[in-house]
Amino acid sequence: MTPECDRVLEALGAGGELPPELARHAATCEDCKALTSGFGALEALPPIPTPQSTPGLEAARQKTLEELAAKPRATPWWRELLVLLATYAAVMVGGLLFLGRKGMVLNTASPAVVAGLALVILLLVGSGAYLALAPMRRHVPWVLVAAGAAAVAILQVVGGSGYAMARGFLSGVMGCMTTEVLLSIPPLALALVLLCRSAFQPVRAFAAGLSAAGVSLFVLHLHCPDGTAGHLMLGHLVPWLLLAGVALFLRARMPTRSYAP
Amino acid sequence: MARFCQGEAPAFDALFQRYSRPVHGYLTRLTGSPSAAEDLVQLTFLSVVRARGRFQAGARVKPWLYAIATNAARDHQRRNRRPEELTAEGELPATVAADTPGPRDTGLERTVQRALEMLPEGQRIPIMLHRFEGMSFAEIAESMGLTESAVKVRAHRGYARLRELLAELREESSG
């Protein structure tokens, strides 16, 4: 597509005849011949008659005015984000206080690694919530969300202490899995409710799931003493990713309250 | 839009008066049913009211409104249609049989409609917004959440593909 083809495309949309220099180009360029021919073919479709007002349109107007009268002040989107982040923080603190009766930070990796990974997870939680709720002018690319999730997963496994607990592997995995699922329920539920206030976009729902389940991933990261790669993958990361998938699955089936992007 | 965001009913009325008919026309073309389009206009404007806190200051109203209308139509088709009424990719068909037959139900019109229906949604929506709604590519890009150049490429490919499809369909019907 040359700059002239670009101008032909623009000029066709503006209506009327093509200026002479563009008409000359369109007559010789194969791309533009296809373009103008396709554009012209649509003339065969009749215009849609749109009556001044119909009972249906009037009912739509009335219903919308009632909705506006019931809630005249708009709620800015960032207030919902703040509510979600506050809930995340409450669940994190509550989870750590509840689980940490014998010590909140039982991760035996070096303090720098523990703190660094905790920051990475918090970054994921915050940015996931933002991507899920903020109005965007461009679609969120899947690759960005997938890269963020992959980075967190790899760093978790690489940053593991390697320390294995005396209790069996399976019971350890099941314990962490259960804790992660239970702690994820409140943030996930709220994230889903807030997601229904905008149009369904799979990538946003997945980002919301990663973010909400990241809350319990953060708690487990600090609290769980088992640092073997197998435990971290099966007990912490697999449920985290599954919960994100569940968020996507549920959001696709929930009613949408507003179709705004 | 700023006055509407503050809850002023006359500002909303002005918005409704200006856009409800074009949006109704767009949704009729998109769904093929004027009655479904009326329901979707209601959903579109209810969404506008409910989500006005998501409208970004300085953004254009028209692309935002058409983005909402497209999302509502897509959701409506996915939830209310049998799967066989969606395209193979699970996308919106361009049009289906209208509630009432149009006055120009010619063979050419049907062929063009079928060709348009065969285009993937990613090419069909920019073409519909460009050809029938008179939107600029900057507005279409804003409405679809894409870059302007991506939308131009899609529209260009869509028009070219439309020509190919029409040639194939004409060959089919004459052969």
Number of strands of chain B: 0
* Unreliable runs of chain A: none
- Kindly report the average pLDDT value of chain A: 92
One letter per element, helices H and strands E, the order of chain A comes to: HHHHHHHHHH
Specify the overall morphology of chain A. elongated
Please give a handful of descriptors for the protein shown.
heterodimer; A: 261 residues; mainly alpha; B: 175 residues; Butyryl-CoA Dehydrogenase, subunit A, domain 3; 8 helices; elongated
Account of the protein in words:
- The complex is a heterodimer of chains A (261) and B (175).
- Chain A has 10 helices and no strands.
- Chain A has helices at residues 3-14, 20-28, 30-41, 55-70, 77-99, 111-133, 142-158, 169-195, 202-223, 229-253.
- In chain A, α6 (111-133) packs antiparallel against α9, α7 (142-158) packs antiparallel against α10 (229-253) and α8 (169-195) packs parallel to α10 (229-253).
- Chain A is elongated and about 80 Å long.
- Chain B has one domain (2-174): PhyR, sigma-like (SL) domain (Butyryl-CoA Dehydrogenase, subunit A, domain 3).
- Chain B has 8 helices and no strands.
- Chain B is an all-alpha fold and 175 residues long.
- Chains A and B meet through α1, α3 and α4 of A and α2, α3, α4, α5 and α6 of B.
SSE layout:
The complex is a heterodimer of chains A (261) and B (175).
Chain A: H1 3-14, H2 20-28, H3 30-41, H4 55-70, H5 77-99, H6 111-133, H7 142-158, H8 169-195, H9 202-223, H10 229-253
Chain B: H1 2-5, H2 9-31, H3 34-50, H4 61-80, H5 107-118, H6 121-131, H7 137-144, H8 148-174
Helix pairs in contact in B: 2-3, 2-4, 3-4, 4-7, 5-8, 6-8, 7-8
Could you give a short description of this structure?
The complex is a heterodimer of chains A (261) and B (175). Chain A contains 10 helices and no strands. By secondary structure, chain A is mainly alpha-helical.
